[in-house]
Design goal:
The structure is a homotrimer. By secondary structure, chain A is an alpha+beta fold. Chain A is built from 6 helices and 15 strands. Chain A has helices spanning about 20-30, 50-60, 100-105, 130-145, 195-200, 250-255, and strands spanning about 5-10, 35-40, 65-70, 80-85, 90-95, 110-115, 165-170, 175-180, 185-190, 205-210, 215, 220, 230-235, 240-245, 260-265. In chain A, helix 1 (about 20-30) packs parallel to helix 4.
């Protein structure tokens, strides 16, 4: 392992609460050299989809062998499993509730193990705070170089959430949803250029979007290409198409929310 | 001292403001190897009780010799003292305004010193920002290994806030208050199992709670045991009893706020 | 360079979003030993003045050779330049949109270079996320010790925003504005003691303020000198005069916002 291993930390704990801090204390007690990088602790409470979107958008920016700790865990204390998932380059520690589903969809998952080796836990395990007593310690031991096989048996039936499906409407239209509204009011859709190519078999040229009832006709490479009253689409940095407005919250202008129906329409090139 | 000393940092500075960042800059100028772990900077402004609850809930998760910097300081610039408090395993740096009262209540405090050695301060000391100019530097020097005795004389009359008292109502009822509402809407009470045992002389069996006028009859070990319409109590990870609802904010359902009257009732076991 | 270089990070990305986390991942991939210190990610979206105020208030607390990464970048993807600015002790990496204007106003700027050496970028560069693909990597390479001259040619015509001007009204009055409202509701004005001396040619003695239509007659050294119903001025830790109220949000009491007109009046000493 690296001399300076990295653990990223994504949760719905809230930056106001002591929860994330307590988890970090436990991690540092086990792995004093680890660097803990917060992705977000302000994921909406119990919102597995938002946590999934957050981690899938961030993890690829980190160096190989980073351990990604992801905790949105409404089933804490119940029989839901705790898991470690590995891809070729990254490790993920999370409850087995589907919060890693977007990672599974994007990556060749090498292996998932069920966390069962209790001697790696903090004792006693509080039934309401597995992040502190199970997930955090396991992430710390992984960062110290303990192999994932040491934590429990491989499992195949890990939970995959039904992610918002893309639906082919005809040979030039695909239906998706709004996946996320960001702090700027940008509307991140569930539709990506890769998926358009896969589903419709061709590269998009002239693109329109339908967001709810509103048609968005302009498509740009970056925000500042737009004029000030315009709503437009662009390819966002997370890989998905976004709908934006110059220095304004497009989500409010379009009355869009997470889950709002979105349609991409490939117009004949002009 | 450790090669990689840890300073935790709890304040009411707000994560939007530059204040916490400036304090960290000063700390790193003195102790380049220290790791600074934020607990929260979103404690309500001047709220000593919330700061006290936050730090008492978090510090025990950190390794021995961690320095805990706690700043909610409405009296900054006045004659209120600055102090270092030590327990067997931890050090605390804070204004002497009672913000450490919950630590004092839980721990055998070994010693408290008044911070007076001005050569450890950042000069000039701004009368409105002792966190940057006094508390931060002192925490950094402690983390570097300077003994607490070097900062000033021991004091006995440090400020203890009157913490929300628990009141024995009869041989099966204790009255307390709501100590904190967390981001999930969980209602953390000021009543703990230890205190019930101490005050009523017996282990709780069947437990009811009264929160304001509402009676809460179910008691579980973890959230997911509840059905979706149920309000229930459980023993929270901070050591206190909590009132919760499955994926819903119990505080809103019960119209509970910090300070709302709470009663625990030990019903005869069935 | 230091063995443990420091990068501070100020942005309008929002602490809820994955954006800041992704930037940190890229930085750590390039400079594994760097310490990244968040100043704020909750600057109002596209608010160059708030970002400027935040960074100018924080950077001076950090050790020499700190790299300050500042991203509020409504023109991302357009032809606006990316720059590195150096003062005698600090380095700044930012879009050339004026976000460093308050640093320029305070410091002897040694040199500004235009960032053009694309081999230091993360590839491909997303036109909507230069923080991750350009600014972050450049900050990381600077922290590793690459000289700023390696990134591009020196430029003279970097963008300076017209900062809120101070206007001399007569020989005892200066007009400014509200620069910032902080989390406590303190009203930070654009007027500093240094500027009063420079503009009026004398040290302020008895000071009144006019905030909008409200006259503020008390002036204290620190908050706790005030009585509980009083609104008063003091010299804040950022160097500017502030208007405050004891444990209350002065901004709300005065109906003050960012940009509200403020006047300082030097009354004859009594």
């Amino acid at each position: 392992m690296s001399e300076r291993p990295i653990i990223t930390f994504t949760s719905d704990f809230g930056s106001r609460e002591y929860y994330a801090g307590a988890v970090k204390g436990v991690i540092l007690g086990i792995a004093p050299n680890v660097r803990i990088i917060d992705i977000s602790h302000d994921v909406a409470s119990h919102d597995l989809l938002e946590a999934a979107f957050t981690v899938v958008s961030a993890y690829g920016s980190f160096p190989p062998r980073t351990v990604h700790l992801v905790v949105a865990d409404p089933g804490v204390g119940s029989e839901r499993r705790a898991i470690i998932a590995s891809t070729e380059e990254h490790l993920f520690v999370a409850p087995d509730n589907g919060v890693l589903s977007m990672v599974y969809a994007r990556e060749q998952i090498s292996r998932v193990v069920s966390i069962e080796a209790e001697h790696y836990f903090r004792r006693p395990v509080a039934p309401t705070f597995h992040a502190r007593d199970i997930f955090g310690p396991v992430a710390a031991w992984l960062a110290r170089g303990i192999g994932m096989d040491q934590f429990g048996p491989e499992v195949e039936n890990y939970v995959r959430l039904a992610l918002p499906p893309l639906r082919r409407l005809d040979d030039r239209r695909i239906e998706g949803i709004v996946l996320h509204i960001d702090k700027f009011g940008n509307v991140i859709t569930s539709i990506s250029p890769d998926e358009v190519l896969r589903i419709l078999g061709r590269e998009p040229q002239t693109i329109h979007f339908l967001v709810g009832e509103e048609r968005v006709k302009a498509h740009y490479r970056y925000y500042a290409q737009a004029s000030s009253e315009e709503i437009f689409s662009l390819q966002g940095s997370s890989g998905y198409y976004e709908i934006a407005a110059l220095k304004k919250p497009a989500a409010r202008l379009l009355n869009a929310r997470r889950g709002t129906r979105v349609e991409i329409i490939l117009e004949p090139s002009i």
